[in-house]
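Subject: sequence -> structure tokens, single chain

Hey, anyone have a minute? Need the predicted structure for the following. Not urgent.
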Amino acid sequence: MCRSRSRRTAIATAALLVTMPAVIASAEPAPSVGLAAAVERDLGISVAEFTRRAQLAERVALFAEDARQRYPRAFAGAWLENATPIAALTAGQGAEQARKAATAAGLTVRTAAKTEATLGQQKSAFEEWLGQQSDAVAGVVHGVAVDLVGNRIVVWADRAEITVPDYIDPANVIVRARAVAEPLPSGSAESGSLAAPPGALARDYWQNTPRTPSGAVAGGDPYVGHQGRRLGHCSLGFHAVDRSGAPVNITAGHCDMAAEAAGTPEATAVHEWIPGEDFGAALGAFEKSVFGGLDYGLIRVADAARDRFGGAAVREPGAADIRLDGHAIPVVGAPACKSGATTGYTCGVVLEVDVTNDVGGHGQAPVQVKGLFRTDICALPGDSGGPVITGTKALGISSNVTSETLTECPIREPITAGSFGAQVRLSAQPIAAVLAEHPELTLRTN
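Reply:
Had a minute. Here:
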């Protein structure tokens, strides 16, 4: 690896960090040493197996898309269990045909009680029901998701003893820390230094983060948002182009400290990160920021920096690139790795899809973000906005994290201010949803 890493025990209650299937590639990727090491460390598999499982997940996604249309009264979901593709089916209409199709596609069939459509309807019904409840109930619940593997709806709350509709098993109300999403603060821009105490924390996390390259930049590289006297650290996401060929970077919307000003002359500016300085050269500014419903931001690249955003690369800061060749949708069980300016590459698996989280940040009331996918990937403040990949495909943008208990998270040395680790659960914004909302954008690919 290009720099030393260690595992350090971390404690916290909640911390920020900080995607359609493509044709399966037959060629092996040429990953950076950093990605290969993270895959082996966090997943216990080789990078070749990482790529193979990602391709299996694409097959699962293709089957699931077809089964939802053809067998809606029997299909109960599909996922990857280690390296085994699974399809769950009920005894409903079309079950036998669905079973034959799943077997022909190489999926192992399991029996379930509720269809995927029924689970989705129950999730929507619960969200509607929750909106009609008093603060005594609604104020305690802060997340809901479909657990395909468990064939159930799970509810995340501050406490377990709450009233829920009869289609929700009270045992599926899980006490969990709340999600938080905001840029790693750097205090105020003043006299070329970072203000304390937030600046001291930022310096401690980022003191060994290499500067934003003076040449080509990639997903995972650091940037500094500058709005008025406020500074915040985040990570660049995926490079894209609009219909005119102008470059855009897709990052997290919550990284914009003044979303209402996006696309105006007062928009949050995006600059290079240079250790020991407030910020470096201008890279662009936020053209659009969404934090609520979805979580994404579009950085319009400055004319002087256009040539620096020409590639399709993802990397951890200071390490070699990997090249993307498309994008994918999240599949439960799929292997995934994120890159971020604070922690570089960390890897895990997708735990749930179609997650709704109430996400706090910016010192304001929580906002509801829907359609996320949740993972067991470790991430820390400053990783927000960075890319999440599966194999050589773009999957999502790092959005928010909850921290629950003690854990170890691979981070740079030295870390002296304490870290926000714990049993992390990185939730990410699927890149497919962003592209669907912006058909004028095309991801850069190799």
